[in-house]
Amino acid sequence: MDLPFSVWDTIDNTTLYKTFLCKNCGGMRRSHRTNTLVLISDHTKGVYADSWDYSTGMLKYVGEGQKGNQCFSGQNKVLAESRINGVELHLFEVFVQNKYLYEGIVTLEGQPYFEEHSDVNKNLGHVVIFDIKIDPANLATMTEYLRERNQWIFRLGFADAPEMEIC
């Protein structure tokens, strides 16, 4: 799919949903017309927090659903079956409302699994965890990107900006 932006560019929500021909809201946005699933790791809202392992370029991405136990249906199923269904996965991160940082094409690594977390109503339940890896073609620029990203988070005043060593 040809995109009007590049990896590490920031776009707005309108550009995102018009480019991928998907819904204009939600953390997982499926498009049958472009055969894509847009994954959004939004740090400005939501119940569950996704987390990075910077040494491997792996994102621990929490599945769809904010109440009760999550299951393998809807977009969770599409993502879980992405290695066999041909759906292309695109990852964005949000640190400032309506600013979507494009991190490129990603892949699902290993098998999804469940963890116990409190839902939107503060009730414990099971959430689906997906290990998402940035496309190897983008790993060459990952170190510089992570340095800039960490500085950006710090400048935005996030107290929990991750400490990281960059080789």
Give a structural overview.
The structure is a single chain. The protein is an alpha+beta fold. The chain has helices spanning 13-20, 74-80, 82-85, 136-139, 142-156, and strands at residues 10-11, 28-31, 36-42, 51-53, 58-62, 88-96, 99-118, 124-134. Strands 1, 2, 3, 4, 5, 6, 7 and 8 form an eight-stranded mixed sheet that branches. The chain is globular. The termini are far apart.
Task: List low-pLDDT spans.
Answer: 161-167
Would you tell me the structural class of the helices and strands? alpha+beta
What is the straight-line distance between the termini? 33 Å
> What general outline do the C-alpha atoms trace?
globular
**What about the largest sheet?**
8 strands, mixed
SS elements, strand count: 8
Please, what is the average pLDDT? 87
Hey, roughly how much beta strand do the residues contain?
Answer: 35-45%
Computed Rg: 15 Å
What string gives the helices and strands in order?
A: EHEEEEHHEEEHH
Determine the number of helices (DSSP H or I, runs of at least 4 residues).
Answer: 5
Helix content: 10-25%
Oligomer: single chain
